[in-house]
């Protein structure tokens, strides 16, 4: 089926190709930026030390609280770790009001979070809550506090397991007065204002939580090596040798357990190659960045993660539509128009779930795509040919994202020599893209095999598993590590 519109779509699709040689070039640069980030602060790849120096093995036990601030929702949960790789989790989830995400003060935001924690405790742990209230009012007996893991999925400069200052907001958040402040202290003071029996014990990035949760639940003896998120944003954390994190000597930080010789590092790979020395950079990528609220930042994330793929697609479709020389959405059915109030005209108006849907639509007339075009964009009577054209560009954008995702994975595996030293490397992943985008992992694995130091043999050693609830279970596990360390220090002081 040859037509000018399909040819146009194919031509745009070619702009999104990310061939093997480029993957390899990306890997080289990633390794360079990775090393730079381990040596000094303020680099494009932050390589943040997390002070978490061991991964769980499934025997950990206890009841912990966890909260998760990182995307569109705020989640509060309590997790009971049973000590046999299983856990039970009670949670409540709520939308973060938009005005708190982008225009309020940090006080408003953290007060809102503390209120949600209070409501959760009243509903799910009322006995503990009321006992604490009684003791507090009587000023008697020692307080029994819940240890809480705070999953805060933004770049922070971490100074200890529960201490870290916000470097910058990402993913559409923008509350300037929080930047430079210790987010654990902000949450703790909001909790204290309400008199809640909660101690913020650990500061957790969602990737570190994913790594920990996967390690707790994953089958077999092998500890998990890397945790990654491919969702609204993208990032990864991995186990690094302590002696390679040389910048630790220059950072003022709390004490941590050095006995394992390792530490989990949060790469913040969303900011890989912000200076664009190797990343692909189409006209659509450039426009998206220029009109974002953080131009020049999170350049890798802007090509890979869920928050941005819909926006790239929107810009491509709009470009095709407004092009007078293109028939796209114009002929074939006389009354096809994009109405003025269509989401196609609205920045961020295309959700990445639309890409997943179009990519997986196998029906001959692309009925699902047509329904989605009508429901989400008020575009009706779209021809089969135009749906095919949409699918061609969707595929190109999604595939590029998946192939780009192979770059940090390959680079970290090569730099740590993991594929040489192990028979199996376990990776925990989470996020809507890797979970729902058709064949995301398949395209990623194709690209991994094309990297010579990984190859077919290396790729086979990589086990990738979805790690659900990383931000809950993982945060609980880190709160557990933190409270054990606190007890250790206390015992040492008592000697
Ligand atoms: C944040 C990371 C986070 C990732 C995935 C990025 O925008 O900077 O801290 O891990 O999103 O949620």
UniProtKB/TrEMBL annotation:
It is an enzyme of class 2 (transferase). This is Phosphotransferase. Residues 226-481 form the Hexokinase C-terminal domain. Keywords: ATP-binding, Glycolysis, Kinase, Nucleotide-binding, Transferase. InterPro entries: ATPase_NBD, Hexokinase, Hexokinase_BS, Hexokinase_C, Hexokinase_N. Pathway: Carbohydrate degradation; glycolysis; D-glyceraldehyde 3-phosphate and glycerone phosphate from D-glucose: step 1/4. It comes from Aspergillus nanangensis. Belongs to the hexokinase family. One of its GO terms (molecular function) is D-glucose binding. GO terms for cellular component: cytosol; mitochondrion. Its EC number is 2.7.1.-. Pfam families: Hexokinase_1, Hexokinase_2. It comes from the Eukaryota. Residues 9-216 form the Hexokinase N-terminal domain.
């Amino acid at each position: 089926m040859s037509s000018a519109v399909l040819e146009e779509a194919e031509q745009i699709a070619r702009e999104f190709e990310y061939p093997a040689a480029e993957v390899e070039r990306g890997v080289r640069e990633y390794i360079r930026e990775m090393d730079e980030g381990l040596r000094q602060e303020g680099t494009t790849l932050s390589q943040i030390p997390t002070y978490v120096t061991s991964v769980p093995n499934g025997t950990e036990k206890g009841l912990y609280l966890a909260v998760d601030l990182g995307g569109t929702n705020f989640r509060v949960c309590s997790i009971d770790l049973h000590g046999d790789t299983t856990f039970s989790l009670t949670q409540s989830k709520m939308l973060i009001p938009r005005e708190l995400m982008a225009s309020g003060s940090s006080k408003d935001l953290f007060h809102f979070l503390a209120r949600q924690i209070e409501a959760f405790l009243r509903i799910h742990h009322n006995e503990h809550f009321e006992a604490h209230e009684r003791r507090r009012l009587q000023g008697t007996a020692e307080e029994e506090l819940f240890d809480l893991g705070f999953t805060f999925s933004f770049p922070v400069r971490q100074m200890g397991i529960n201490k870290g200052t916000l470097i910058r907001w990402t993913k559409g958040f923008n509350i300037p007065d929080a930047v430079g402040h210790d987010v654990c202290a902000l949450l703790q003071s909001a909790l204290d204002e309400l008199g809640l029996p909660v101690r913020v014990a650990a500061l957790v990035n969602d990737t570190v939580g994913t790594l920990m949760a996967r390690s707790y639940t994953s089958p077999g003896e092998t500890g998990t090596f890397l945790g990654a998120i491919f969702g609204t944003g993208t990032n990864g954390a991995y186990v690094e040798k302590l002696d390679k994190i040389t910048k630790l000597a220059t950072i003022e930080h709390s004490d941590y357990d050095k006995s394992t010789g390792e530490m989990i590092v949060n790469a913040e790979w969303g900011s890989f190659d912000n200076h664009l020395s190797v990343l692909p950079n189409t006209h659509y990528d450039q426009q998206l960045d220029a009109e974002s609220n953080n131009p020049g930042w999170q350049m890798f994330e802007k090509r890979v993660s869920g928050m941005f793929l819909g926006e790239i697609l929107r810009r491509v479709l709009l470009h095709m539509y407004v092009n007078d020389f293109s028939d796209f959405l114009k002929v074939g059915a006389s009354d096809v128009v994009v109405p003025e109030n269509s989401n196609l005209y609205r920045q961020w108006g295309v959700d990445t779930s639309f890409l997943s849907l179009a990519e997986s639509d196998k029906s001959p007339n692309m009925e699902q795509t047509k329904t989605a075009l009508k429901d989400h964009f008020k575009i009706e009577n779209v021809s089969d040919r135009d749906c095919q054209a949409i699918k061609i560009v969707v595929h190109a954008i999604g595939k590029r994202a998946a192939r780009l995702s192979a770059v940090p994975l390959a680079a970290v595996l090569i730099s740590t020599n993991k594929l040489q030293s192990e028979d199996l490397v376990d990776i925990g992943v989470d996020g809507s893209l890797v979970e729902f985008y058709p064949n995301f992992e398949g395209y990623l694995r194709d690209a991994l095999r094309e990297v010579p130091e990984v190859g077919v043999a290396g790729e086979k050693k990589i086990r990738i598993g979805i790690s659900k609830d990383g931000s809950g279970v993982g945060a609980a596990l880190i709160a557990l590590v933190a409270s054990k360390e606190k007890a250790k220090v206390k015992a040492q002081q008592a000697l």
